[in-house]
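Sync notes, pocket subgroup
Present: LS, DG
LS reminded everyone that the earlier model was apo-only. Rerun requested with 6-O-phosphono-beta-D-fructofuranose included. Inputs:
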Amino acid sequence: MHTGDQLSLTAAHLAVRTLGPATVPSPLAGGLLDRRDTVHYVAETDRVLLDDTLDMAARRRVPTSELPAFEPGGPRLRLFFEPESTRAGVVTCGGLCPGLNNVVRGLVLELYGHYGVTSVTGFRNGYRGLTRAGAKDSLTLTPEGVRGINSQGGTVLGTSRGGQDTVEMVDTLTQRAIDVLFVVGGDGTLRGAQEIADEADRRGIPLAVVGIPKTIDNDIPWIDHSFGFQTAFSRAAESIRAAHTEASSIPDGVGLIKLMGRHSGFIAAYASLASEDVDMVLVPEVPVTLEGEQGLLAHVDRVLDRQGHAVVVVAEGAGQDLFTERPTARDASGNVRLHDIGGLLRERITDHTAAGGRSISLRYVDPGYAIRSVPANPFDSVYCTRLAQAAVHAAMAGRTATVVGRWHGRFVHLPIALATGSRNQVDPSGDLWLSVLESTGQPVPAGRPPTSDARSDLSSEPPGR
Ligand code: F6P
């Protein structure tokens, strides 16, 4: 995120919605009273500051008590819901992401094990599972039923893209007498969750809707990172290593790796940094220049001259303006179907080097879905479990239209509107991109301003699910 975006946020932007007073003693209260702070190390009445530098805080020119801050995540002494009579629902939506099953398992174990909630319904295949027809396929989730699912990729609940009629979904939840709904998904899914919470509110139904942000692209703002991202970029780094091995084993070998990342190039940036063998990274946030001394093609020439092989990593959303036609088709989530930048680069690098009299061997690697269909790595497994626990604590305490996340290492509650109001992107003037430039030694063409959200035709897409 850019510093300017952060400075525009006030305390009001960070306030989360609550269904009503929490009056029910928590079954966890005994353990909590023994601690000065909560198990997540921040007392319930404390706040987690948005700004973590003195300069940023000072620039706001407000008293310390008015600094924008998040409500901490973690268990509360008093709950809104009576655990024994609480009925919970879980739905996973959108594209696959490592850790979905860990979140499902974490929710079920926390609900049953710590709160004594004994009714947990899994709605199948994303928001379709909340329609009249889809709800027939729902299943009962139990601790026994979720045993071992965290070693599998994907989601045991199934998933789908696209929204469904909000009124119909709230009808289903009402008929099932669901009190708390956990929604695991990306920005479009979370917008849908907000609509469900708003519709329940209009009907006067005390429904807690709590989101757990999911995206391998890491494009949800105001959280340190989304779950599954680390696993996905680690898997992507393996593909880069394979391409590098291929390219460096033959004369004039070129490894070209295309990675997911529609609007945000975090996977490409992190996987490349992890690999240390990449000579150029192209991300959607930075314009792609092919021609000229500072362009990709001349850089590949120079790298081949110097070391005999070259490795280029491209995020799928990079360089879309190199195509004459603007992409118009959209998927069920409302996402623009992108042009194939990998194919274009493959052609241009091959043609350019051939025209220069060099016969390269180009190894094209597109790991595609393989980076997101794998089980979560140990780091993400821990993160997913803890996010799920934080989500249960938030819901039982009556938070709604709320997302759980981690900010500067601490679990916090965010209003859904904040998490869906902007997009996390690689800042072309930020320290991550600087690290990439330092690591690759790639040229920085002058005169082309960063694209970021200036690619209005792509960024003003309708809410996807
Ligand atoms: O949104 C996450 C993501 O993994 C993107 O990086 C990618 O463009 C998209 O999903 C592809 O998913 P699907 O083919 O399921 O639409």
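DG: The mean pLDDT is 92.
LS: The two ends are 22 Å apart (CA to CA).
Action: DG to write up.
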